[in-house]
Design a protein that fits this description.
alpha+beta; two-stranded antiparallel sheet; about 190 residues; about 35% helix; 7-stranded antiparallel sheet
Length: about 190
């Protein structure tokens, strides 16, 4: 009987310290953590960006701790990240910029003026075609801003909480780029 209790205790102890496995979505494995500066963020949730029934990319939202309230996430001035891993092979830079512009317009209710310069800088990073397997990371840290990396290459950083709010609202706002992706990122 004592051995049985020990086995049960050891089993539960091991399951408590075993790291969470990466999330598989759309044949893509998103990691369970990402670094934002010196902070480790955890996968809050993930989903697929689809356009006309085509799987474009798997997207994951990473936060300090799990959160299901999109408005809190958008307005939080704390480290967070979005990872996009492309499933579709061949999304042009122009298509990406067009999608960003539509997303920023939706996120700001058409009031792009205050962040227009930041949007233009952000869009300037997307000159190459996104290919299947490419990973794009957008990592926000309050002290630096929103950093964009594509295929492991740092493209640049854009400062400003207002820009960060509009950027994350592309996925999590009232008019998200894809509602099922938003729900997935919120862990629902």
């Amino acid at each position: 009987m004592m051995i049985k209790k020990i086995v049960v205790v050891v089993f539960f102890a091991l399951t408590m310290i075993t790291p969470v496995q990466a999330k598989e979505i759309g044949s893509v494995n998103l990691p369970d953590t990402i670094m934002a500066g010196k902070e480790q963020l955890i996968l809050n949730g993930a989903g697929l960006r689809k356009k006309y029934f085509v799987k474009v990319y798997a997207g994951g939202l990473y936060l300090r701790k799990k959160e299901g309230n999109a408005n809190k996430i958008i307005h939080a001035d704390e480290p967070m990240a979005i990872r996009m891993q492309f499933i579709y092979d061949g999304v042009s830079g122009k298509e990406l910029v067009d999608a960003w512009n539509e997303g920023f317009s939706n996120a700001t209710m058409g009031n792009l003026g205050p962040i227009r310069e930041n949007i233009d800088k952000f869009n300037s990073f997307f000159t190459e075609e996104a290919r299947k397997g490419d990973i794009y990371d957008i990592i926000y840290t309050p002290e630096e801003g929103a950093t964009v990396s594509m295929k492991g290459k740092l493209m640049g950083t854009i400062r400003g909480l207002d820009f960060k709010k509009a950027l994350f609202a592309i996925w999590l706002g009232e008019k998200p780029v894809d509602n099922s992706l938003k729900q997935g990122m919120l862990g629902k």
